[in-house]
Amino acid sequence: DLQGLRQKMACLRFFSRTLKSSYPLLQSIPQISSSSSPNRNPNFRTLPFSTSFLITKTPDKFKKKRKKPESARTKSVQHESTKIPHFESLVGRDSHFRFLTRSKEFIAKQPDRILRLDDAGKLYRELGFPRGRKVTRYIPKHPLIFQTYRHSDGKMWLGFSELMEDLLDEEKAIIDSMEVDRVNRVRKLLMMTKDKRILLSKIHHTRLLFGIPEDFRDRVQKYPDYFRVVTGQDGNRVLELANWDPNLAVSELERTFMVDEDKAKKAFKFPLKHGKELELDEKDARKLNQLNTLPLVSPYSDGWKLDLWTLEAEKYRVGIVHEFLSLTLEKRASIHHIVEFKDEFSLTRQTYQMLKKQPTTFYLAGTEMNWTVFLKDGYDYDANGGGLIGKDPQVVFNERLYKYADMQHMEVDSCSNRL
């Protein structure tokens, strides 16, 4: 009927106006008049138009971005609720000062302690900056440590500031005064190994961990009663233990046991599996577990002879890592340092899982692929918020160096302290 037709026409006109306001391109389409219109052009032909230009997909900016699954490279070892900020910050500090630490070691070995800037740009691995970046981006971050100057040959050179030259002389005095201590640390490392020998290259690679000087390979010649340097079958130089010293064959854990027996008993847990039918309360279960945990196996024993997957062998490996960390300057080591001595200490691929089972003694920071293990007993949480107990003179020096490295100019207080 007529009324219904009018309603349909009104709906079509409304839809047409709405469509044109939403899609302006439709306005360019000519209007088609009714067949009864006298002005219609008989030569005009219309073709069906495509709607492919209409937006039918959700724009990317409105799509919900899916989270990438965490990998071992990015996944943190600790949950946010169990993180210890001080330990995590130390791992971050290592990354922050990587350029400073590596550049200091490398440039200090160069003639006159200088390096041509063009050459420095190619030594990204030796100087500790990312590949593809310019070294000139990192030098200005430590203006009190590094300086550049133009030589008479017209080339730019990189060297140390006067402040840094003085600090290096101060560090050398510390190294000389601590030589006997460093020698004993290396002796204890050798006594812990399976064959009482370590490649000199491995000791050199981990020297900063123990405060061992750069020229240690030459200094060992002064101690023939302690060391022998031999050439292995592959041509590499090997450091061997010359004599066993029973006074050094006492682990840090054993010393703790003699001073505080209860503390030593609580250091590790090797739970004994038992059925619920025993109905043990917490105290009785703890006593039963201690029977399983103690005695520990000394890292200076022949524990490497034990069956690899026995409880006694795991106790031995835990003791090895504990003693290894106690010999480091900062009571910590990265996965790379520990893997360096994997064969010498008879460690397995399960070292990460083994350490995670002992949260009372060890704290693992960083990511699952690149973690650092801390010896918690080496830090005091009550007195100074997690500070290192009994800082080595080299550690004190390093902390001063880091302080200067973060300064953009010399402060008055720092000048007075140096004087």
Automatic annotation (TrEMBL):
Q: Where is the composition biased (Basic and acidic residues)?
A: 69-81
What residue spans carry the region label Disordered? Answer: 60-81
GO terms (molecular function) for this protein are: RNA binding
| Domain of life (superkingdom) | Eukaryota
Q: One Pfam family for this entry, by name?
A: PORR
Cite the InterPro entries for this sequence. PORR_domain (IPR021099), PORR_fam (IPR045040)
Signal sequence, start to end: none
Residue span(s) of domain PORR: 83-408
Q: Which PANTHER family match?
A: OS09G0473400 PROTEIN, PROTEIN WHAT'S THIS FACTOR 1 HOMOLOG, CHLOROPLASTIC
Q: What protein name is recorded for this chain?
A: Protein ROOT PRIMORDIUM DEFECTIVE 1
Q: Could you read off the lineage of the organism from its UniProt record?
A: Eukaryota, Viridiplantae, Streptophyta, Embryophyta, Tracheophyta
